[in-house]
Amino acid sequence: MQTRSLTAQVPMAPRMTDDPAELVPELAGVSAALFRITGNGSVPRSTIGLVQLRAGQIAASTYLTVLHTGFLRRAGESEERIASVVSWQDSPYFTPPERAALALAEATLRPAAHGERVTDELYALAAEHYEPKALATLMFAIGQVNFFTAVALIAKPVPGRAFTDPWN
Predict the structure, then answer these.
(1) H-helix or E-strand containing 141?
(2) pLDDT at 6
(3) Which 3 state secondary structure label does DSSP give 76?
(4) How far apart are CA 168 and CA 150, in angstroms?
(5) Among candidates 110, 113, 109, 77, which has minimal Cα distance to 95?
(6) CA distances from 7 to 4, 64, 86, 143 (A)
(7) In this structure, are residues 59 and 110 in contact, taking their beta carbons and an 8 Å threshold?
(8) How many Å from the N-terminal Cα to the C-terminal Cα in the chain?
(9) What is the pLDDT of residues 146-156, one digit of tens each?
(10) Contact by Cβ (8 Å): 51, 105
(11) Least enclosed by CB within 10 Å: which of 34, 80, 105, 142?
């Protein structure tokens, strides 16, 4: 596998030039369902956004990181909260429920050196802060961003372009 030089110019064109949603139109129904699930109101939209930003950071996807940063800014999140998602464990800007959600995302998306990724203790902590429907919604929100991580890493849409048009 070839790596890019640290000083190399990163092209501002997607790797996959055809819009995957146009190539596979069945994606529209899946995508719409996932957005309805995460937007069902059982988990604050800000928490979903923070979790999805952290997932983009963990995946090292500039596209997802820029996308979710933009969503959070437009939703009125402070720059301090957005900037400290990467170091949420020692940041003073997050509530206990947000910390539980970020810990759940982190555990789910990072390989564990030993044992389970999501321990019984972590699940119990999250369950202290979220009712069953909200916990299921949070689980699907982590899955949703993980689903789109493959698109971001393989097709490599252009960061900063409109969410609905990253392929041009």
Answers:
(1) helix 132-154
(2) 57
(3) coil
(4) 19
(5) 77
(6) 8, 22, 24, 34
(7) no
(8) 27
(9) 888 988 889 88
(10) yes
(11) 80
46 conformational bin, left if phi > 0, alpha if psi -120 to 50, beta if neither:
alpha
User: pLDDT at position 114, please?
Assistant: 84
How many Å apart are CA 37 and CA 144, to the nearest integer?
9
At 21, the amino acid letter reads A
Task: Pick out the chain residues at pLDDT < 70.
Answer: 1-11, 162-164, 166-168
Q: What pTM was computed for the model?
A: 0.87
Cα separation, 65 vs 50, whole angstroms:
10
Distance CA 20, CA 24 (A): 6
Specify whether the CB–CB gap between 130 and 97 falls below 8 A.
Answer: yes
Alpha helix segments (H runs only) across 15-92: 20-23, 27-38, 45-58, 62-74, 79-83
Assign 136 to helix, strand or coil.
Answer: helix
Helix, strand counts (H, E) of the chain? 8, 0
- Cα(66)–Cα(18) distance, integer angstroms: 21
Choose among 109, 98, 86, 48: nearest CA to 118: 109
Token digits of residue 165: 């048009």
